[in-house]
Design a protein that fits this description.
The chain is mainly α and about 350 residues long. It is built from 15 helices and seven strands. It has helices at about 5-10, 25-30, 30-45, 50-70, 75-85, 90-110, 140-145, 170-185, 190, 225-235, 265-280, 290-300, 305-315, 320, 325-335, and strands at about 150-155, 160-165, 200, 205-210, 215-220, 250-255, 260-265.
Length: about 350
Protein backbone atom coordinates (compact mmCIF):
# COMPACT_ATOMS: atom_id res chain seq x y z
CA UNK A 1 0.00 0.00 0.00
CA UNK A 2 1.11 3.53 -0.78
CA UNK A 3 1.12 5.52 2.45
CA UNK A 4 1.07 8.77 0.49
CA UNK A 5 -2.29 7.80 -1.00
CA UNK A 6 -3.78 7.60 2.49
CA UNK A 7 -2.54 11.10 3.26
CA UNK A 8 -3.42 12.48 -0.15
CA UNK A 9 -6.97 11.15 0.06
CA UNK A 10 -7.63 13.45 3.01
CA UNK A 11 -7.15 16.53 0.87
CA UNK A 12 -10.02 15.50 -1.39
CA UNK A 13 -12.45 14.98 1.49
CA UNK A 14 -14.73 18.02 1.85
CA UNK A 15 -15.60 19.32 5.27
CA UNK A 16 -18.42 17.55 7.06
CA UNK A 17 -21.64 19.55 6.98
CA UNK A 18 -25.18 19.86 5.76
CA UNK A 19 -25.80 19.54 2.03
CA UNK A 20 -22.58 17.60 1.47
CA UNK A 21 -22.61 15.13 -1.40
CA UNK A 22 -22.21 11.42 -0.73
CA UNK A 23 -18.94 9.64 -1.53
CA UNK A 24 -18.88 8.31 -5.09
CA UNK A 25 -18.57 4.70 -3.88
CA UNK A 26 -21.80 5.03 -1.91
CA UNK A 27 -23.61 6.69 -4.82
CA UNK A 28 -22.57 3.95 -7.22
CA UNK A 29 -23.62 1.20 -4.80
CA UNK A 30 -27.26 2.26 -5.12
CA UNK A 31 -30.24 3.21 -3.02
CA UNK A 32 -29.65 0.70 -0.23
CA UNK A 33 -26.14 2.08 0.32
CA UNK A 34 -27.46 5.63 0.42
CA UNK A 35 -30.10 4.54 2.93
CA UNK A 36 -27.46 2.84 5.10
CA UNK A 37 -25.35 6.02 5.05
CA UNK A 38 -28.22 8.17 6.24
CA UNK A 39 -29.25 5.56 8.81
CA UNK A 40 -25.78 5.16 10.34
CA UNK A 41 -24.77 8.82 10.56
CA UNK A 42 -28.08 10.52 11.32
CA UNK A 43 -30.42 7.91 12.86
CA UNK A 44 -27.99 5.85 14.93
CA UNK A 45 -25.75 8.71 16.11
CA UNK A 46 -27.31 11.91 17.42
CA UNK A 47 -24.24 13.50 19.00
CA UNK A 48 -22.89 16.02 16.49
CA UNK A 49 -19.29 15.45 17.55
CA UNK A 50 -19.60 11.69 16.99
CA UNK A 51 -21.31 12.29 13.65
CA UNK A 52 -18.52 14.62 12.54
CA UNK A 53 -15.69 12.33 13.69
CA UNK A 54 -17.18 9.12 12.27
CA UNK A 55 -18.22 10.68 9.00
CA UNK A 56 -14.78 12.20 8.53
CA UNK A 57 -13.17 8.79 9.18
CA UNK A 58 -15.44 6.92 6.75
CA UNK A 59 -15.10 9.57 4.05
CA UNK A 60 -11.34 9.45 4.40
CA UNK A 61 -11.29 5.67 3.98
CA UNK A 62 -13.69 5.70 1.03
CA UNK A 63 -11.64 8.43 -0.66
CA UNK A 64 -8.62 6.15 -0.34
CA UNK A 65 -10.64 3.23 -1.78
CA UNK A 66 -11.57 5.46 -4.72
CA UNK A 67 -7.89 6.13 -5.32
CA UNK A 68 -7.27 2.39 -5.22
CA UNK A 69 -10.19 1.81 -7.64
CA UNK A 70 -11.93 -0.58 -5.25
CA UNK A 71 -15.73 -0.71 -4.97
CA UNK A 72 -17.59 -1.25 -1.66
CA UNK A 73 -18.34 -4.92 -2.29
CA UNK A 74 -14.68 -5.67 -3.01
CA UNK A 75 -13.17 -4.21 0.16
CA UNK A 76 -11.39 -6.90 2.21
CA UNK A 77 -10.29 -7.11 5.87
CA UNK A 78 -6.66 -7.00 4.72
CA UNK A 79 -7.24 -3.71 2.96
CA UNK A 80 -8.83 -2.18 6.07
CA UNK A 81 -5.92 -3.37 8.20
CA UNK A 82 -3.31 -2.04 5.78
CA UNK A 83 -5.11 1.28 5.56
CA UNK A 84 -5.10 1.72 9.35
CA UNK A 85 -1.39 0.92 9.55
CA UNK A 86 -0.63 3.48 6.85
CA UNK A 87 -2.98 5.99 8.51
CA UNK A 88 -0.60 6.35 11.44
CA UNK A 89 -1.30 8.65 14.36
CA UNK A 90 -2.12 7.70 17.93
CA UNK A 91 -3.75 4.38 18.86
CA UNK A 92 -6.93 6.23 19.90
CA UNK A 93 -7.15 7.90 16.51
CA UNK A 94 -6.80 4.62 14.61
CA UNK A 95 -9.24 2.84 16.91
CA UNK A 96 -11.79 5.60 16.38
CA UNK A 97 -11.44 5.20 12.60
CA UNK A 98 -11.84 1.43 12.98
CA UNK A 99 -14.97 1.86 15.13
CA UNK A 100 -16.47 4.15 12.49
CA UNK A 101 -15.73 1.67 9.69
CA UNK A 102 -17.11 -1.29 11.66
CA UNK A 103 -20.34 0.55 12.37
CA UNK A 104 -20.78 1.80 8.82
CA UNK A 105 -20.13 -1.59 7.23
CA UNK A 106 -22.48 -3.22 9.73
CA UNK A 107 -25.23 -1.06 8.26
CA UNK A 108 -24.18 -1.98 4.74
CA UNK A 109 -24.41 -5.67 5.64
CA UNK A 110 -27.86 -5.18 7.20
CA UNK A 111 -29.07 -3.43 4.03
CA UNK A 112 -27.57 -6.18 1.82
CA UNK A 113 -25.12 -3.83 0.13
CA UNK A 114 -22.14 -6.02 1.04
CA UNK A 115 -22.07 -9.65 2.10
CA UNK A 116 -19.67 -9.40 5.05
CA UNK A 117 -18.22 -6.61 7.19
CA UNK A 118 -14.55 -6.25 6.17
CA UNK A 119 -13.72 -4.25 9.32
CA UNK A 120 -15.26 -6.72 11.80
CA UNK A 121 -12.23 -9.01 12.05
CA UNK A 122 -9.60 -6.24 12.00
CA UNK A 123 -7.85 -5.90 15.36
CA UNK A 124 -7.74 -2.58 17.09
CA UNK A 125 -4.53 -0.98 18.31
CA UNK A 126 -3.77 -1.83 21.94
CA UNK A 127 -3.11 1.19 24.08
CA UNK A 128 -2.25 1.12 27.76
CA UNK A 129 -3.26 4.40 29.34
CA UNK A 130 -2.49 4.71 33.04
CA UNK A 131 -3.30 8.39 33.41
CA UNK A 132 -5.13 10.94 31.29
CA UNK A 133 -3.42 13.93 29.71
CA UNK A 134 -5.74 16.68 30.96
CA UNK A 135 -3.87 18.93 33.43
CA UNK A 136 -5.32 19.31 36.91
CA UNK A 137 -6.27 22.75 38.24
CA UNK A 138 -5.03 23.18 41.82
CA UNK A 139 -7.09 24.47 44.72
CA UNK A 140 -5.04 27.67 44.82
CA UNK A 141 -5.52 28.23 41.09
CA UNK A 142 -9.27 27.66 41.39
CA UNK A 143 -9.56 30.18 44.21
CA UNK A 144 -7.51 32.72 42.27
CA UNK A 145 -9.68 32.20 39.18
CA UNK A 146 -12.98 32.69 41.02
CA UNK A 147 -11.66 35.68 42.97
CA UNK A 148 -10.57 37.38 39.73
CA UNK A 149 -14.12 37.56 38.37
CA UNK A 150 -15.74 40.93 38.96
CA UNK A 151 -19.33 40.45 40.09
CA UNK A 152 -20.16 43.94 41.42
CA UNK A 153 -19.81 47.45 40.00
CA UNK A 154 -19.36 50.18 42.60
CA UNK A 155 -21.27 53.45 42.15
CA UNK A 156 -19.88 56.47 44.00
CA UNK A 157 -21.22 59.98 44.60
CA UNK A 158 -19.33 63.24 43.98
CA UNK A 159 -17.67 62.93 47.36
CA UNK A 160 -16.26 59.53 46.41
CA UNK A 161 -18.53 57.66 48.77
CA UNK A 162 -19.95 54.31 47.75
CA UNK A 163 -23.71 54.70 47.33
CA UNK A 164 -24.55 51.51 45.44
CA UNK A 165 -23.13 48.19 44.34
CA UNK A 166 -24.63 46.97 41.07
CA UNK A 167 -24.50 43.22 40.30
CA UNK A 168 -22.70 42.33 37.07
CA UNK A 169 -24.81 39.55 35.60
CA UNK A 170 -22.18 38.18 33.19
CA UNK A 171 -19.60 37.97 35.96
CA UNK A 172 -22.11 36.23 38.23
CA UNK A 173 -23.02 33.85 35.41
CA UNK A 174 -19.40 32.95 34.74
CA UNK A 175 -18.66 32.43 38.44
CA UNK A 176 -21.71 30.15 38.72
CA UNK A 177 -20.57 28.11 35.69
CA UNK A 178 -17.05 27.67 37.06
CA UNK A 179 -18.41 26.76 40.50
CA UNK A 180 -20.71 24.19 38.91
CA UNK A 181 -17.75 22.49 37.22
CA UNK A 182 -15.68 22.76 40.39
CA UNK A 183 -18.21 21.22 42.75
CA UNK A 184 -19.94 18.64 40.53
CA UNK A 185 -17.11 17.27 38.32
CA UNK A 186 -19.40 17.71 35.31
CA UNK A 187 -18.47 18.16 31.68
CA UNK A 188 -18.81 21.50 29.91
CA UNK A 189 -21.33 19.86 27.59
CA UNK A 190 -23.50 18.88 30.56
CA UNK A 191 -23.41 22.47 31.86
CA UNK A 192 -24.54 23.76 28.46
CA UNK A 193 -27.60 21.45 28.57
CA UNK A 194 -28.82 22.62 31.97
CA UNK A 195 -32.31 24.12 32.13
CA UNK A 196 -33.88 26.15 34.93
CA UNK A 197 -35.91 23.11 35.92
CA UNK A 198 -32.69 21.13 36.41
CA UNK A 199 -31.84 23.34 39.39
CA UNK A 200 -34.45 22.58 42.00
CA UNK A 201 -35.09 22.06 45.70
CA UNK A 202 -36.08 18.50 46.58
CA UNK A 203 -37.46 19.43 50.01
CA UNK A 204 -34.14 19.04 51.78
CA UNK A 205 -31.56 20.63 49.51
CA UNK A 206 -30.95 22.00 46.04
CA UNK A 207 -29.93 19.50 43.38
CA UNK A 208 -28.73 19.72 39.78
CA UNK A 209 -29.98 17.23 37.22
CA UNK A 210 -27.38 16.61 34.52
CA UNK A 211 -27.92 15.04 31.11
CA UNK A 212 -24.65 13.41 30.12
CA UNK A 213 -23.15 11.56 27.16
CA UNK A 214 -25.04 8.53 25.92
CA UNK A 215 -28.40 9.78 27.19
CA UNK A 216 -27.49 9.23 30.86
CA UNK A 217 -28.90 11.52 33.55
CA UNK A 218 -28.00 11.94 37.21
CA UNK A 219 -28.83 14.23 40.13
CA UNK A 220 -26.04 15.83 42.14
CA UNK A 221 -26.63 17.61 45.47
CA UNK A 222 -25.64 21.29 45.42
CA UNK A 223 -23.27 22.34 48.18
CA UNK A 224 -23.77 25.72 49.86
CA UNK A 225 -21.06 27.62 47.96
CA UNK A 226 -22.49 26.55 44.62
CA UNK A 227 -26.04 27.24 45.77
CA UNK A 228 -25.01 30.78 46.71
CA UNK A 229 -23.37 31.40 43.33
CA UNK A 230 -26.29 30.06 41.25
CA UNK A 231 -28.95 31.91 43.28
CA UNK A 232 -26.98 35.18 43.06
CA UNK A 233 -26.77 34.79 39.28
CA UNK A 234 -30.48 33.98 38.91
CA UNK A 235 -31.49 36.97 41.03
CA UNK A 236 -29.25 39.42 39.16
CA UNK A 237 -30.43 38.06 35.80
CA UNK A 238 -34.08 38.27 36.89
CA UNK A 239 -34.86 34.82 35.48
CA UNK A 240 -35.86 32.98 38.65
CA UNK A 241 -39.50 32.74 37.57
CA UNK A 242 -38.86 31.87 33.92
CA UNK A 243 -40.14 28.60 32.46
CA UNK A 244 -38.45 25.40 33.58
CA UNK A 245 -37.43 24.57 30.01
CA UNK A 246 -35.52 27.82 29.59
CA UNK A 247 -31.69 27.61 29.64
CA UNK A 248 -30.03 28.01 33.02
CA UNK A 249 -26.84 29.61 31.67
CA UNK A 250 -27.56 32.02 28.84
CA UNK A 251 -25.54 33.86 26.23
CA UNK A 252 -25.07 37.61 26.36
CA UNK A 253 -25.40 40.28 23.67
CA UNK A 254 -21.93 41.66 22.89
CA UNK A 255 -20.85 44.65 24.92
CA UNK A 256 -24.32 45.29 26.30
CA UNK A 257 -23.81 42.33 28.66
CA UNK A 258 -27.54 41.67 28.52
CA UNK A 259 -28.58 38.04 28.56
CA UNK A 260 -30.54 36.45 25.74
CA UNK A 261 -32.98 33.57 25.97
CA UNK A 262 -30.50 31.28 24.23
CA UNK A 263 -28.19 28.83 26.02
CA UNK A 264 -24.43 29.11 26.12
CA UNK A 265 -23.08 26.36 23.86
CA UNK A 266 -20.32 23.96 24.91
CA UNK A 267 -17.90 25.83 22.65
CA UNK A 268 -18.78 29.18 24.24
CA UNK A 269 -18.32 27.75 27.74
CA UNK A 270 -14.85 26.50 26.77
CA UNK A 271 -14.01 29.95 25.36
CA UNK A 272 -15.33 31.55 28.55
CA UNK A 273 -13.05 29.38 30.69
CA UNK A 274 -10.00 30.21 28.54
CA UNK A 275 -10.78 33.92 28.71
CA UNK A 276 -11.21 33.89 32.48
CA UNK A 277 -7.99 31.91 32.92
CA UNK A 278 -6.10 34.48 30.87
CA UNK A 279 -7.58 37.36 32.86
CA UNK A 280 -6.52 35.65 36.10
CA UNK A 281 -2.97 35.08 34.82
CA UNK A 282 -3.31 31.30 34.96
CA UNK A 283 -1.90 28.75 32.47
CA UNK A 284 -4.07 28.52 29.37
CA UNK A 285 -3.37 24.79 29.09
CA UNK A 286 -5.98 24.37 31.83
CA UNK A 287 -9.37 23.46 30.37
CA UNK A 288 -12.94 22.89 31.61
CA UNK A 289 -12.01 19.21 32.02
CA UNK A 290 -9.29 20.25 34.49
CA UNK A 291 -11.99 20.92 37.09
CA UNK A 292 -13.23 17.36 36.58
CA UNK A 293 -9.73 15.98 37.09
CA UNK A 294 -9.24 18.07 40.24
CA UNK A 295 -12.55 17.02 41.82
CA UNK A 296 -12.00 13.30 41.15
CA UNK A 297 -8.39 13.36 42.39
CA UNK A 298 -9.37 15.31 45.51
CA UNK A 299 -12.16 12.89 46.46
CA UNK A 300 -10.01 9.79 45.89
CA UNK A 301 -7.19 11.37 47.92
CA UNK A 302 -9.64 11.84 50.80
CA UNK A 303 -10.51 8.15 50.72
CA UNK A 304 -13.92 8.29 49.03
CA UNK A 305 -15.03 5.01 47.47
CA UNK A 306 -14.20 4.63 43.79
CA UNK A 307 -17.79 3.62 42.93
CA UNK A 308 -19.15 6.81 44.58
CA UNK A 309 -16.69 9.00 42.67
CA UNK A 310 -17.50 7.05 39.51
CA UNK A 311 -21.20 7.90 39.91
CA UNK A 312 -20.42 11.57 40.51
CA UNK A 313 -18.33 11.62 37.33
CA UNK A 314 -21.01 9.80 35.34
CA UNK A 315 -18.62 7.09 34.14
CA UNK A 316 -19.82 3.64 33.09
CA UNK A 317 -16.52 1.95 33.93
CA UNK A 318 -14.32 2.51 37.03
CA UNK A 319 -11.26 2.31 34.76
CA UNK A 320 -12.38 5.56 33.10
CA UNK A 321 -12.61 7.28 36.48
CA UNK A 322 -9.10 6.05 37.25
CA UNK A 323 -7.73 7.92 34.24
CA UNK A 324 -8.65 11.18 36.00
CA UNK A 325 -6.75 10.25 39.16
CA UNK A 326 -3.60 12.36 39.47
CA UNK A 327 -2.36 10.89 42.76
CA UNK A 328 0.33 8.91 40.93
CA UNK A 329 1.63 12.13 39.38
CA UNK A 330 1.74 13.77 42.81
CA UNK A 331 3.77 10.85 44.19
CA UNK A 332 6.17 11.18 41.26
CA UNK A 333 6.65 14.89 41.99
CA UNK A 334 7.30 14.09 45.63
CA UNK A 335 10.02 11.61 44.69
CA UNK A 336 11.67 14.12 42.35
CA UNK A 337 11.68 16.77 45.08
CA UNK A 338 13.64 14.41 47.34
CA UNK A 339 16.55 14.17 44.91
CA UNK A 340 19.67 15.69 46.46
CA UNK A 341 21.33 18.50 44.55
Amino acid sequence: MNTELVKASTASVPAVGGGQSLPALVERAGGAARFAWDEFFYAEHHNKHTQRAYQSAVRRFLAWCEEEEVELASISPGMVGQYLVALGGSPSKRNQHLAALRGFFDRLVQRHVVLLNPAASVSGVKEQVIEGKTPEITLEQTRKLLASIKVLRTVKNKQGEVVEEVPLVVGLRDRAILSTMRFTACRAGAVAKLRLGDFQHDGEQYVLRFREKGGKSREIPVRLELQRDILAYLKAAGIEEDGKDMPLFRSAIGRTKKLTGKPLTTERICELVKRRLKDAGLPERISPHSFRVAAITDLLTKGEKLEDVQYLAGHTEPRTTGLYDRRKKQVTRGIVERISI
